[in-house]
Automatic annotation (TrEMBL):
The keyword Signal applies. This is Phosphodiesterase. Residues 279-289 have a biased composition (Low complexity). Zn(2+) 1 binds at H476, H512, D513, D636.
Length: 739
């Protein structure tokens, strides 16, 4: 309720439970009113119900769009959460539009609950045009509780303050004193009715016009306007006598106070006729407050600590100031994208209905679906395996049995058959191939390490791979080591890397999956495994592989290949190995690929086109890191680029491992991370097509442009056509049936 007279303006709010400070105002708010719209009860709806109760919010549940709209019309909820996961139950988009059509919903926050994969296939949420907010499905009660608290203290409270802002504007409207609000560039944004009455103008004649377009009285001193502007630019108030010109041409003397207002939206001037100091905010995009914080920081710390992305945002902000409105609005959208954390997550476009792609993305690029299932699957951090007694006698490279040596004769060729070596060595290919490749690259000489120590190290690393895994075993490690060695021999790669980089790459490839349990990170996180707890659900397996590799290596002098190198060299080598192993984690796949393309491939192409030297691009420390990451990533998932028979064998092995995980998830009552990998229904050709489309093609196109790998790209093309042919025949198997 508002009371107004020329002396006092009073805005009264009903005193309730929650106290909110808004500038000089102290507001009081009722408990949050929440409407949950879920067609059926499940862990997600139960999680939000429990969270509302814990937070002392008032909660209503609706099962249909009709009952939801009726309930909203009755209570006008602050927050509406709509289940957007199951389109067959009701049209969530239509319900959102219906609620928005109600006048009282202007300050209501509406949130869509979406499937996990949606955040990966469409980070900008373009598939949900009606929803500014979304929540990725997660039935964990504490996750729901935290989400509600964040919404209450974020969007809901902001809407509450906007309502208070409307009250302030209502008070200004009733004021008997003339008030004019302008932007920083002196464009009139608002005048109140008292201003219209005193000056004789209508709002429509002033809004959007610059102050200089409005006639001024000749009675003002010539330099008065510059004095005012200079004062405002310094962030100071100006007060004095000002002669304004009314619409009818008469001059009027006014005691004017002009106050610069700096808020999150930018710096603006508020012209006020009279003695009261009124402050205002606006939605303009330049961040004046951040500039003020930065200058304060500079006084504390003389170093430049501004991040590159911050510099980019500041440059765009500056460009907006002098840009026409369409350009400024486009730059606003650019800034909105730049401020998100998922800069490198791609938009799938037409693939959002492909369950194979969605499951691969969800299974490989997330840390699992957390829930309170009570079915914690304990994956213990076991003690490392020791070398079996019959393998402890070190052999030199010359002592390798002829039959095994014969299978490795073409190990420097891309078409090398790792499965022949696996059979010849009775599933111990890593030790033998490692001895030959490490010898070829002079690793023992670089590390000042005896060949016997290297042999012992390879044996103990191989002993810590699980031969029971169909895919993530020492044969996979040997295959990745082979691919790494092959890439290191490419001319462009050799120009980029130093000997220490080559040694780090070979060691990282050897250990990159050591002690892999045959289950994905998502599985370990969902199961509440000890490893997931140890590494906080972040890069769980990759962190374990790197840590265990150094634990195995340094605990025993007999296999410590780092024993004789200088401390600083060891630290550099260790850092490079860890970075490469962590790069094999798939959640940052697109970040690594995009950085490689934008930091290396594009600048290289520009320099080569102009005939300039590319050495600076190739050898900078930052780009050497990107090359090593890309190298091991391509080596790790190069199966689709192998000769067709090898590609088919690897596809069968990884599918079997995913089938086993799905079986385990069902037995343990855990969330099924990749439902399409059900051994009774899965189409292996479809899964391979999705994997190649989503992860492989762009990455190997970029790697081929850098390292020149036409044979790999030909294999990739042949293998893709092979899987496409099987899929077109609606076959689900690895191979077509016998003729």
């Amino acid at each position: 309720m508002f009371f107004s007279n020329p002396c006092i303006l009073l805005v009264i709010f009903q005193t309730t439970l929650t106290e909110v400070q808004f500038g000089p105002m102290k507001l009081f708010k009722d408990p949050l009113q929440v409407l949950l719209v879920f067609a059926k009860e499940d862990s997600q709806s139960n999680g939000f119900c429990w969270a509302c109760e814990k937070a002392n919010f008032r909660c209503s549940m609706a099962r249909t769009p009709e009952s939801a709209l009726e309930c909203f019309l009755e209570k006008h909820h602050d927050l509406v959460i709509i289940d957007h996961r199951h389109s067959r139950h009701f049209d969530a988009e239509a319900l959102c539009r219906s609620i928005r059509a109600v006048n009282s919903s202007e300050n209501t926050v509406i949130v869509a609950v979406v499937k996990r994969y949606l955040t990966l296939i469409d980070p900008c949420c373009s598939v949900l045009p009606s929803y500014p907010q979304r929540y990725v499905e997660n039935g964990n009660m504490m996750a729901c509780y935290n989400e509600l608290l964040q919404l209450e203290h974020g969007e809901v409270r902001a809407q509450f303050k906007l309502r208070a802002g409307n009250a302030i504007f209502t008070a200004i409207e009733q004021s008997q004193e003339a008030i004019e609000i302008t932007s920083e560039d002196q464009v009139i944004q608002y005048v109140n009715p008292a201003y219209e009455s005193i000056m004789g103008y209508q709002q429509g004649e002033l809004i959007g016009k610059e102050i200089i377009e409005v006639p001024k009285s000749e009675k003002n001193k010539p330099d008065l306007l510059e004095t005012i502007n200079s004062c405002i630019r310094k962030g100071k108030e100006w007060q004095g006598i000002y002669y304004a010109k009314k619409k009818n041409g008469d001059s009027i003397q006014q005691n004017v106070k002009i106050t610069p207002v700096i808020g999150q939206g930018g710096k603006h001037k508020d012209r006020r006729k009279g003695s009261l100091d009124v402050r205002s905010t606006t939605s303009r995009g330049s961040d004046g407050s951040s500039q003020r914080r930065h200058s304060s920081m500079a006084r504390i710390h003389s170093m430049t600590i501004e991040a590159p992305i911050t510099k980019v945002i500041n440059i765009i902000n500056a460009a907006q100031e002098s840009s026409p409105m369409p350009v400024a609005e486009a730059l606003d959208r650019v800034l909105e994208i730049l401020r998100t954390t998922e800069l490198y997550s791609p938009q799938l476009g037409t693939k959002d209905e492909d369950p194979h792609t969605n499951d691969l993305v969800g299974g490989l690029m997330t840390d699992g679906l957390r829930r309170l299932s009570g079915n914690e699957y304990i994956f213990s951090t076991k003690q490392p395996h020791h070398i079996p007694s019959h393998l402890t006698t070190p052999l030199s490279l010359n002592d390798i049995p002829p039959r095994i040596a014969q299978t490795m004769e073409n190990e420097d060729s891309w078409d090398f058959d790792i499965f022949n070596l696996e059979a010849a060595t009775i599933k111990r290919p890593l030790t033998y191939l490692g001895m030959k490749i490490f010898s070829r690259f002079g690793v023992c000489e670089f590390l000042n390490c005896p060949e016997a120590t290297l042999r012992s190290w390879l044996q103990v690393i191989e002993a810590n791979y699980h031969s029971s895994n169909s895919y993530h075993n020492s044969s996979h490690a040997a295959d990745v080591l082979h691919a790494t060695a092959y890439f290191l021999c490419k001319e462009r790669v050799k120009q980029s890397l130093d000997p220490i980089d080559e040694v780090a790459a070979l060691i990282a490839a050897t250990v990159h999956d050591v002690d892999h349990p045959g289950r994905t990170n998502s599985f370990l996180c969902n199961a509440g495994s000890e490893l997931a707890i140890l590494y906080n659900d972040t890069a769980v397996l990759e962190s374990h592989h790197a840590a265990l590799a150094f634990q195995i290596t340094t605990r025993d002098d007999k296999c410590n290949i780092f024993k004789n190198i200088e401390r600083n060299e060891y630290r550099t080598l260790r850092q490079a190995i860890i970075d490469m192993v962590l790069a094999t984690e798939m959640t940052k796949h697109f970040e690594h690929v995009n950085k490689f393309v934008n930091s290396i491939n594009k600048p290289l192409a520009a320099l080569e086109e102009n005939g300039e030297s590319v050495k600076g691009i190739l050898t900078s420390p930052e780009n050497r890191i990107l090359v090593k990451r890309m190298l091991i990533k391509c080596a790790d998932i190069s199966n689709p680029c192998r000769p067709q028979e090898l590609c088919i064998e690897w596809a069968g092995r990884i599918s079997e491992e995913y089938f086993a995980q799905t079986d385990e998830e069902k037995r343990q009552g855990l969330p099924v991370v990749m439902p399409v990998f059900d051994r009774n229904t899965c189409s292996i050709p479809k899964s391979q097509i999705s994997f190649i489309d989503y992860f492989i093609t762009d990455m190997f196109d970029a790697w081929d442009a850098f390292a020149d790998l036409p044979n790999l790209m030909q294999h990739l093309d042949n293998n893709f056509k092979y899987w496409k042919g099987l899929d077109e025949r609606k076959l689900h198997s690895l191979r077509p049936p016998p003729e």
